Model the fold of this input.
Amino acid sequence: MARKHATFCQTVQGAKRRKPLTEPSKNGGRVLVTGRPYTSTPGPSKKLDPRWFGPFKVLEYLHDTDNYKLHLPPGMDRRKPYFYVMSLKEYRENDPDRFKSRRMHKREPILIDNAEQWEAEQTLDHCCQNNRHQFLVHLKGYERGDDSSEAIENLDHSLELIQE
Done:
């Protein structure tokens, strides 16, 4: 009797953290993927990595395994497009009436040889970390808060900015 009660209590506690097995997003919907196992860039600190990646478009839902097949961008084409339901959450658009200061649209990248690329306006700073040259780059059409640190290998088409 006590064993059945303990098993029941464990099931109840475990179910609190699990998502229901219902389909949260239909085909064509958009979801976010948890960032913990899918961190894209090695950095000095894991706490600065994004918690969620996306949004990604749902292509298919597999009922027997509770997996979703997502449409991944060209930069993530080496990863498998299947994700378990526990690693996803539904994407919600920003409400422009409630959050007026948030930018809704960013400039789209330019596709060159099926790779997403952005146009650099100027280089702001340079450093050498682990024998790799990195540049602080201001992207054209973005604000200063969106400046990014890029390795020299990623700046193939911006060599004239580097030489200045």
